[in-house]
Specification:
Layout lengths: L1 E5 L3 E7 L14 E6 L1 H11 L4 E7 L1 H13 L3 E2 L2 E2 L5 E7 L3 E4 L8 H12 L6 E5 L9 H11 L3 E5 L2 H5 L8 E2 L3 H8 L6 H13 L4 E5 L5 E5 L3 E4 L12 H11 L5 H16 L7 H7 L6 E2 L5
Parallel strand pairs: 1-4, 1-9, 2-7, 4-5, 4-6, 9-10, 11-12
Antiparallel strand pairs: 2-3, 7-8, 12-13, 13-14, 14-15
Helix pairs in contact: 1-8, 3-4, 8-9, 9-10
Bound molecules: adenosine-5'-triphosphate and 1-O-phosphono-beta-D-fructofuranose.
């Protein structure tokens, strides 16, 4: 079974309007509410690809109730740990451009963390865990601790987070990491201009323990590196409608195809990311399948 872990889920409140006048009363056009948070988005896209998963993490209050109801209505199972405070609401403002305002999130107690550790300790080597998103205040080492727990039980995991939270898990050998270019530059401590620069920085993460590194480049596509291949995958062309969850969709596409050859997994990863970028919500199965035949994969030559 695939488990997604979202420490800090969110109700994503999408507000559409032509423009925002600061210091004045603005009235919205359409508004929408989604069950959000990175791991939850991964679960939603996995479902579109016909893969079952169970969403784990922390949920509380009326917003937590909305998330659970929404997942249930979509046939996605969950085993969230109930917390006292309300799950956060993140604002996604869609004017001519996209502006995101993400809340800090509710307090998570040490007891809540212990309950999550107990859940993870009950998994087996046939399971795969996907960690994604921000960490609750005061729990900066949570990813490191949980990755160690899984490593010691020989349970594979993938992780989509940034900076030290990501690098602290490399020693526990994540199956997939998915930094975007900005995050990879932050880890490498240098600007990465050419594809070969990106490959070199990604390969450093392979040497530090990651099995597969997928560096997403927004509308420019992605670079993929593992110990065998260095690949460049341009994005298919289309109209950008929504970049929220594009990265999460990419993770879902890669993990969904875990029985197939690496090129197929990458093809699905990019098709999922771009199909979400071209939709109002996360991509549907039909939108993903329509893009798959258009994804080209090229080798990057001239680098170690
Ligand atoms: N404008 C776009 N056109 C086509 N595809 C896109 C576009 N933006 C994103 N994508 C697709 O989505 C994938 C992930 O995008 P991106 O690099 O923005 O991820 P991210 O920064 O992790 O996103 P987020 O954190 O918002 O989910 C890209 O590799 C690409 O396939
Ligand atoms: O604040 P975090 O945890 O880093 O990101 C949360 C978030 O922006 O990520 C998802 C898109 O990737 C959204 O559903 C959600 O609002």
């Amino acid at each position: 079974m695939i488990y997604t872990v979202t420490f800090n889920p969110s109700v994503d409140y999408v507000v559409r309007l032509d423009e925002v006048e600061t210091g004045a009363l603005n009235r919205t056009g359409d508004t929408e509410k989604y069950a959000g948070g990175k791991g939850i988005n991964v679960s939603r896209v996995l479902k579109q690809l016909g893969r079952e998963s169970t969403a784990l993490g922390f949920c509380g209050g009326f917003t937590g109730g909305f998330i659970k109801d929404t997942l249930e209505s979509q046939g996605i199972s969950h085993r969230f740990i109930e917390i006292e405070e309300d799950t956060r609401i993140n604002i996604k403002l869609k004017t001519a451009s996209e502006t995101e305002i993400n809340a800090d999130g509710p307090k998570i107690t040490d007891e809540n963390v212990e309950s999550l550790k107990d859940q993870l300790a009950g998994l087996t080597g046939d399971d795969h865990v996907i960690f994604a998103g921000s960490v609750p205040k005061g729990h900066d080492r949570l990813y490191e601790e949980l990755s160690r727990l899984l490593f010691e039980k020989d349970i594979s995991f993938s992780i989509d987070t940034e900076g030290g939270k990501l690098t602290s898990t490399l020693q526990y050998k994540p199956y997939l990491i998915k930094p975007n270019l900005f995050e990879l530059e932050g880890i490498a401590g240098r600007k990465l201009v050419r594809d070969t620069d990106i490959v070199e920085a990604a390969y450093e993460l392979v040497e530090r323990g990651a099995s597969n590194v997928l560096v997403t480049l927004g509308g420019e596509g992605a670079v993929f590196v593992n110990s065998d291949v260095r690949l460049r995958i341009p994005s298919p062309k289309g109209v950008l409608r929504n970049s929220v969850g594009a990265g999460d969709s990419t993770v879902a596409g890669f993990i969904a195809g875990c029985e197939s050859v690496i090129e197929e997994r990458i093809r699905y990863a990019i098709a999922c990311g771009s199909a979400t970028a071209f939709s109002d919500d996360l991509a549907s199965c039909g939108e993903i399948e329509a893009l798959v035949p258009h994804i080209e994969i090229n080798s990057i030559e001239g680098v170690k």
